[in-house]
Specification:
The complex is a heterodimer of chains A (about 250) and B (about 260). By secondary structure, chain A is α/β, with parallel strands linked by helices. Chain A has 2 domains: about 1-70 and about 150-245, Rossmann fold, CATH 3.40.50.300; about 75-145, no CATH class. Helix content of chain A is about 35%, strand content about 25%. Chain A is built from 8 helices and 10 strands. In chain A, the strands form 2 sheets. Chain A has a 6-stranded mixed beta sheet with strand order 6-7-8-3-9-10, with helices on both faces. In chain A, helix 6 (about 160-175) links the parallel strand 7 and strand 8. The mean pLDDT of chain A is about 85. Chain B has about 260 residues and is an all-alpha fold. Chain B has one domain: Orthogonal Bundle (MetI-like fold), CATH 1.10.3720.10. Chain B has helices at about 1-25, 40-45, 50-85, 85-100, 105-115, 120-140, 145-155, 160-195, 200-210, 215-245. In chain B, helix 8 (about 160-195) runs antiparallel to helix 10 (about 215-245). The two termini of chain B are about 30 Å apart. The chains are: A alpha/beta (about 250), B mainly alpha (about 260). The interface between A and B is medium-sized, with 35 and 26 residues.
């Protein structure tokens, strides 16, 4: 059974259509990346799934339940780490679970250890590096009880080196803590390296114009990015994206 | 240690000013009852301790009580106005208007309404204390980082969770700024309220001294008020350091 089913989702703001009849599905424990030109309504899609707004038309089903306009049904990791500066790292990673109503400190400590944040439990966010903050933010979303995690360009603010480190780290930790993931990015390589499936969005009003099944076996090593197959995918996606973007 | 390193400049200037004062008064042959020298004031402060100690403690009690009630009222008002935007729109301008009424004018009225007891005095201190706290707390609540607010909403936090987990701790530094101002104001408010007619207090001591041209004692009263204000201020700073440990001196932000 599909975890997340979005059907014919339409939303406009002040007369401008942002999403038009957008449909997509995410299976259980599937990693789906959404690629799109900037300003293609990716964040609107997230806000609708997160329940900040009601869609004008269409439905969002999570595990068979309609979550239109229902907050707190999914777990979320934003572009900036958004850690609360007055909380220790441990209290920060527990925040998502705390909002949902049940937190488990021991699980959090163990998870931090696995994520390479051992010893930083009682530090404050300003004492962490950019990559470590993002790790903490991802653990926070993993520790939330929701079955689907939305990742909103989580590594776009990091430098290239930290970014590829973080991608490997993300795959590794996800391999051991499977969830359904919807990952928004505008980086083709990142999407190819991480995702099972890639959805390409069109320019506004956004809908899904192409879908790629990425066949690389897991666990993935960094060197798949150098294979012929990887390059071929990249070319294909680039072509579609170019068509989707305005001239 | 830090205060010692940074504090020597103002202390030096203060000492210099006192020396100039001490030298100029005898030089221009200013009579005592017009302007005493710092030395005379210091001597008076030490010698007449038994005379004013009762007054001093009365003022300390009054200002602390007024400060606590005033800050609680201030925080309460800020929370209500913040959580009900309609009320904020309605009452925010009135709040500012309330500060345009001179306390000196209001004080006799309060005596007419409430008599000479504790109540009118507390009302004055509360009136001067609550405003800086309300404004500071309201600003602190409203300036909550949009990024963090967005995360909290996406994570499904309800209004109560957003307030207690995000807006309240975020406003803490602002609230402490308000508390610092209110703490010093509370001493001033207490002295003004004592002018109206009280049995004891620095305000009473000051009125008695000035009406009998004991200028040195007036200066002692001023000295006491200054010391008291600084003491209150320092107490709040100390409390702030204990409560807000996450603030970096370098000012780290949420992104880094």
């Amino acid at each position: 059974m599909a975890e997340l089913v979005i059907e014919q989702l339409t939303k406009s703001f002040g007369g401008a259509e942002v999403l038009k009849e957008l449909s997509l599905q995410i299976q259980e424990e599937e990693f789906v990346a959404v690629l799109g030109p900037s300003g293609s309504g990716k964040s609107t899609l997230f806000h609708l799934i997160g329940g900040l707004y009601e869609p004008d038309a269409g439905t969002i089903l999570l595990g068979g339940e309609n979550i239109n306009g229902k907050k707190g049904s999914v777990s979320y990791m934003p572009q900036s780490p958004s850690l609360l500066p007055w909380r220790t790292v441990l209290d920060n990673v527990l925040l998502g679970a705390e909002i949902a109503g049940h937190k488990d400190q021991q699980v959090a400590v163990k998870m931090m250890e696995k994520a390479g944040l051992a010893g930083y439990e009682h530090s404050y966010p300003h004492q962490l590096s950019g990559g470590m903050k993002q790790r903490a933010a991802f653990i926070r979303s993993l520790l939330s009880p929701q079955p689907l995690i939305l990742l909103d360009e989580p590594f776009s603010a990091l430098d290239e080196f930290t970014r590829s480190e973080m991608q490997k780290w993300l795959l590794d930790i996800w391999q051991h803590n499977k969830r359904s993931i919807l990952f928004v990015t505008h980086n083709i390589e990142e999407a190819l390296f991480l995702a099972d499936r890639i959805l390409v969005l069109s320019e506004k009003p956004a809908r899904v114009v192409a879908e790629f099944n990425v066949g690389f076996a897991r666990p993935r090593a960094q060197d798949i990015t150098l294979t012929e197959e990887f390059l071929q995918y990249k070319k294909d996606i680039y072509k579609v994206l170019k068509k989707a973007a305005p001239k | 240690m830090k205060i010692m390193q940074k504090g020597w400049r103002p202390v030096l200037v203060l000492i210099l000013l006192l020396i100039i004062w001490q030298v100029l008064v005898p030089l221009f042959e200013v009579p005592d009852w017009l302007l005493p020298t710092p030395y005379q004031i210091g001597l008076e402060a030490i010698n007449s301790w038994p005379n004013y100690s009762g007054h001093l403690f009365a003022t300390i009690r009054l200002s602390i009580l007024g400060f606590f009630i005033g800050s609680s009222v201030g925080l309460g008002v800020a929370m209500i106005l913040h959580l009900v935007p309609k009320l904020r729109e309605t009452f925010y301008p009135l709040l500012i208007l309330s500060q345009n009424i001179p306390i000196i004018v209001l004080a006799p009225l309060l005596v007419i309404w409430f008599g000479f007891g504790l109540l009118p005095k507390l009302v004055i201190i509360i009136l001067v204390c609550f405003f800086p706290i309300t404004i500071a707390a309201l600003d602190g609540f409203r300036q909550t980082s949009g990024e963090l607010l967005h995360y909290m909403k996406m994570a499904g936090a309800d209004r109560r969770q957003i307030f207690w987990k995000l807006e309240w701790p975020h406003a803490m530094p602002s609230i402490f700024s308000g508390l610092k101002i209110a703490a010093t104001y509370s001493v001033m408010g207490a002295v003004i309220s004592e002018w109206l007619g009280a049995q004891e207090g620095i305000g009473v001591y000051m009125t008695l001294a000035s009406s009998s041209f004991r200028t040195t004692q007036v200066f002692v009263a001023i000295l006491l008020i200054m010391c008291l204000s600084m003491l209150f201020f320092a107490a709040i700073v100390l409390l702030e350091k204990r409560v807000i440990r996450w603030k970096t001196s370098g000012g780290g932000d949420a992104n880094g």
